[in-house]
Amino acid sequence: MNTQTSLIRISSLSPQVIKIGEEATPIIIIDDFAEDLAPLLSFAHEAIFKQDNGSYYPGVRARLPKPYAIEVINQVFQLIYDVYRIPHHLRITPHIYSFSLITQTPESLQPLQCLPHFDTKEPNYFAILHYLNSAPHGATAFFKHKPTGYERINSERIDEYFNKAQVCLDEIKRQTPQYFTHSNEHYEIYHQVEYRPNRLIIYPGNLLHSTLVDLDTDIDSKPETGRLTSNIFINFK
After folding, report:
1. HEC profile for 118-179?
2. 36, CA 20 to 30 Å: which among 131, 135, 142, 228?
3. For residue 214, which of 138, 133, 123 has the smallest C-alpha distance?
4. How far is CA 236 from CA 34, 46, 73, 182, in A?
5. How far apart, in whole angstroms, are the C-alpha atoms of residue 2 and residue 91?
């Protein structure tokens, strides 16, 4: 397969910018992102997926083809600069680019995997998430932490957030592990983005978020049928 040419054709982009939550944080949604997903899916079907021991991701990951990752970044970086008003003297640093599949059963989860999470407290760090498979799968949800009212966790908020989130974490430790898929007295789902094939979303990594894992469809190690995504994380420094 010629990965240099067959994985990087991008459609004419029609981005939607939606402001979510009480903090009106912009997220970007681009449907029908790639002209043809088949070459990228074929690459994923042959990829070697491994447990990601460097994070709390509840599944396995494989390396994205670099030409695809570079082209995705090339297509969206100016949009990110504009939407999030990133100072133009800051330059892009890619951090992670991988295929991802959820594989952990609920009973195998660690307590921190049973909570909504944020990727970083950095202000200019972004997740670029591309949904790839066609079967129905769980949405990406965004959460407000009710005791603090926080939707994004930054340097000024992180200590208070961890102190008050400990109450929920202690409760989880006393319960049977499960994925966090509904609002409760600690966290409220205020927005979610439906999983659709060839939909790409971009959001700040300091937003509290989680996959609304569907136990019937999402826990699947096969890239042909699982909740397959490509994940690219970039920082502007």
Report:
1. CCCCCCCEEEEEEECCCCCCCCEEEEEECCCCECECCCCCHHHHHHHHHHHHHHHHCCCCCC
2. 142
3. 138
4. 24, 32, 12, 33
5. 30
All structural domains of the chain with their residue ranges: 40-102+213-237
- Please give the structure tokens belonging to residue 77: 């970086």
- List C-alpha distances in Å: 30 to 11, 122, 197, 207: 10, 24, 11, 19
In whole angstroms, give the CA distance from residue 126 to residue 235. 6
190-221: pLDDT as tens digits: 999 999 999 999 999 999 999 999 999 999 99
Residues across the chain: 237
Q: How many CA atoms lie within 13 A of 53 on its CB side?
A: 1
- d(CA 28, CA 18) in angstroms, rounded, equals 6
DSSP H helices in the chain: 3-6, 38-46, 66-83, 158-173
Distance CA(141)–CA(115), nearest Å, equals 12
pLDDT, tens digit (0-9, with 9 covering 90-100), for 111-167: 999 999 999 999 999 999 999 999 899 999 999 999 999 999 999 999 999 999 999
Q: 0.70 exceeded by the pTM?
A: yes
Of the candidates 211, 223, 221, 191, which has an alpha carbon nearest to the alpha carbon of residue 104?
221
In contact, 141 and 211? CB cutoff 8 Å:
yes
Q: What's the gap between Cα 129 and its chain centre?
A: 5
What does the alpha-carbon distance between residue 178 and residue 155 come to, in Å, rounded to a whole number? Answer: 29
Place of tokens 């899916």: 41
